Amino acid sequence: GSTYSSKVFRVTFLTLAASLTVPLLGVTVLLDCPIDPQPMSLKEPPLLMGVLEPNIKLRKAERLWENQLVGPESIVNIGDVLFTGTADGKIIKIEDGEIQTIARIGHGSCGTREDEATCGRPLGIRMGPNNTLFVADAYYGLYEVNPGTGETKMLVSNKALIEGQKLSFLNDLTVTRDGRKIYFTDSSSKWQRRDYLFLLMEGTDDGLLEYDTVTKEVKVLMKGLRFPNGVQLSPAEDFVLVQETAMARIRRYYVSGLMKGGADMFVENMPGLPDNIRLSSSGGYWVAMSAVRLNPGFSLLDFLSEKPWIKRMIFKLLSQETVTKFVPKYSLVVELSETGSYRRSFHDPNGVTVAYVSEAHEHNGYLYLGSFRSPFICRLNLQHV
After folding, report:
1. Cα–Cα dist 230/123, whole Å
2. What phi-psi label fits residue 350: left (phi over 0), alpha (psi between -120 and 50 degrees) or beta?
3. First-to-last C-alpha distance (Å) of the chain
4. Chain-centre distance of CA 147, in angstroms?
5. What's the rounded Cα separation, in Å, for the pair 89 and 107?
6. Contact (Cβ atoms closer than 8 angstroms) between residue 77 and residue 108
7. Closest to 292 (Cα-Cα) out of 239, 220, 355, 368
8. What are the residues whose beta carbons fall under 8 Å from the beta carbon of 1, sequence distance 6 or more?
9. What is the residue-wise DSSP string for 180-195?
10. Cα(27)–Cα(281) distance, rounded to whole angstroms?
11. Per-residue DSSP letters for 134-160?
12. Does the keyword Membrane apply (predicted)?
């Protein structure tokens, strides 16, 4: 009897599935898809073993200023004063534990996806010489901000055409010690920051740019990067590292020396999607992962990379907000040596304490963890991990 009933169940289930699938497919074919994804080929993710072995070290971090700020993507310090840009378009300073807004590049109300383009979204933030701040606002461009007076000065407008392309999504920047050159990424000439998931799925080609503060010229240094994101000059300032988020790798572009103008691969096939990159006190680099590629385990990005038709189907039917809910919460920060090998890794599986880490900024024996959506900054004591 049981084999008969399981047969009946199977037939009923398949009939039901087919009866639902056919109209759904019909509807799906007619729906517009916002993205035009191309197959991307990623290697099998590296095994999480050795220095990449999962741990719960990030859970030792403490949450600071909880619910007093939201989405502190990137963090910089001038002495012991911290500065960050938040999801409501503000550039804030944190001095003696007190939060104060020093500037805003955008205007109007903030809070919804629609507001973001006018509200502004400061992402990468760096200190230049004479304690000035340089900020990349995703919607407005590259700015210099005086942390004392809050005065803002536009250096490169998002409306500027650079080699025939407009800048749609300024993301991160790194500045030479003398303040002369700023290297920055435009993550997409097609998608804005609020559509970063479309960008991730589509993997459009964009680049690394250079702004000269003396001649005021902007040059494109690299093209064809799939979701270029965080950037960091090497300690000797002879090359710039640029995170290629959609390809889970880091590229290197030489800005001086014998190799000047050349580029190569610094780290490929990383255990996650690299977001921002910052110097570590050991002469290496801290890399924050915006998502993890679990192996052993399941990585949604890897599963979808060679299947553009599934991506089209998903985005015809679901909003970006809904799709984001399927991305497992898992926070990961890795430290790389100066040559790009893995030194150590800090994990928070399920994002219990640290959720959505976008940057790891080292200052005074602590790692300050930025996040593009959490309402706090996390601080990890490096002596205790």
Report:
1. 10
2. left
3. 59
4. 25
5. 8
6. no
7. 355
8. none
9. -EEEEEE--SS--GGG
10. 55
11. EEEETTTEEEEE-TTT--EEEEEETTS
12. yes
Give residue 342's Cα distance to chain centre. Answer: 20
Checking 216-224 for CB contacts under 8 A at 24+ apart, the result is 216/155, 218/156, 218/160, 218/162, 220/162, 220/163, 221/183, 221/253, 221/255, 222/251, 222/253, 222/263
Amino acid at 230: G
Is the CB of residue 268 less than 8 Å from the CB of residue 42? no
Looking at 4.10.280.10, 2.60.120.260, 2.120.10.30, 3.40.50.2000, the CATH number of the domain 40-381 comes to 2.120.10.30
Instruction: Give Cβ neighbours of residue 253 (< 8 Å, ≥ 6 apart).
Output: 208, 221, 222, 239, 240, 242, 262, 263
Q: Which phi-psi region, left, alpha or beta, contains residue 155 (left: φ > 0; alpha: ψ -120 to 50)?
A: alpha
Crossing angle of the two packed helices 308-317 and 2-30, in degrees rounded to 10: 80
pLDDT in tens, the chain (385 residues): 667 777 787 788 778 777 777 666 666 667 888 888 888 889 999 999 999 999 999 999 999 999 999 999 999 999 999 999 999 999 999 999 999 999 999 999 998 888 999 999 999 999 999 899 999 999 999 999 999 999 999 999 988 888 888 888 899 999 999 999 999 998 777 776 777 777 677 766 678 999 999 999 999 999 989 889 999 999 999 999 999 999 999 999 999 999 999 999 999 999 999 999 999 999 999 999 999 999 998 888 888 888 888 888 888 888 888 888 888 889 999 999 999 999 999 999 999 999 899 999 999 999 999 999 899 999 999 999 9
Q: What is the rounded radius of gyration, in angstroms, for the C-alpha atoms of the chain?
A: 22
CB-based contacts of 278: which residues, under 8 Å, 6+ apart?
A: 230, 232, 285, 286, 359, 360, 361, 362
Token pair listed for 61: 């971090």
Burial of 130 (0-12, 13-18, 19+ CB in 10 A): exposed
Mapping DSSP to helix (H, G, I), strand (E, B) and coil, where does residue 249 land?
Answer: strand
